[in-house]
Amino acid sequence: MATDSQEGSGPRIDDDGGESPMGQSDVELLKRAWCNEKAAPQILEFQTALVQRSREQIHHMEEIVEELTQRGDDPLIVSIYQMDLDRAQFLLRSYVRIRLQKVETAMLHIAKTDLWNRLSRQEQNFARRCIDDMGNYMEESVLSKFPSGYRSNLKQSNASEDDDMVPEPNLDTFVFCKSQNSIGSIPLDDSGDEIVDLVAGELYVLRYKSIKPYVERGQIDLV
Q1: How many other CB atoms are there within 10 angstroms of residue 188's CB atom?
Q2: What H or E segment, with its residue span, contains residue 198?
Q3: Using alpha carbons only, how large is the chain's radius of gyration in Å?
Q4: In the chain, N or C: fewer CB atoms in 10 Å?
Q5: What is the sign of the dihedral through the CA atoms of 115, 117, 119 and 121?
Q6: Predicted local distance difference test score (pLDDT) of residue 139
Q7: Where are the alpha helices (DSSP H) in the chain?
Q8: What percentage of the chain has pLDDT greater than the value 70?
Q9: Which positions of the chain have pLDDT values less than 70?
Q10: Which helix (H) or strand (E) holds 220?
């Protein structure tokens, strides 16, 4: 799905069928973002540029498939382009769907932490609507019937200092991960007593909390 800065938004259709127009670099980046988002217990940074490129290339691929079909090209060639298109559409739709599910599950936690800045503008609008809808529903159906000190959907009572009814992602979740480059020793707990040497290409099962900064920097991929 990589774009060509010199020849427009996408590849041409060669008379002999040509090679697949979906740039492998962007396909792999989208797959990587999808895998990381699916496995991470908390929402990650929205891949704005990658998603925009993917949408443009998917639109271009749809035009290619339509043109190939209309001019009667070899059905095998058309099916190859269609499979490439289907793969990209699946990855993009699943990536967006996973993120929206995370927003629905942890919207209150996300809204009061710096995770809010990881959302796209559309995701922020979606989160606001969910929070408003849930607040209105809880107020009308449950909270209005409680004593005045127990009507918050964030705290058990006014005596609570923290928002103790807001669920948070479990960062102690174990995840499968690997790094493309050797990172060296990283601590597995806060005390630093346990460490592990991450070797490039090796598969590990670790607590997400211990590798969280490396995942966010793109040094470690979740599987």
Answers
A1: 16
A2: strand 195-198
A3: 23
A4: C
A5: positive
A6: 81
A7: 24-39, 48-70, 75-111, 121-141, 208-216
A8: 87
A9: 1-24, 151
A10: strand 220-222
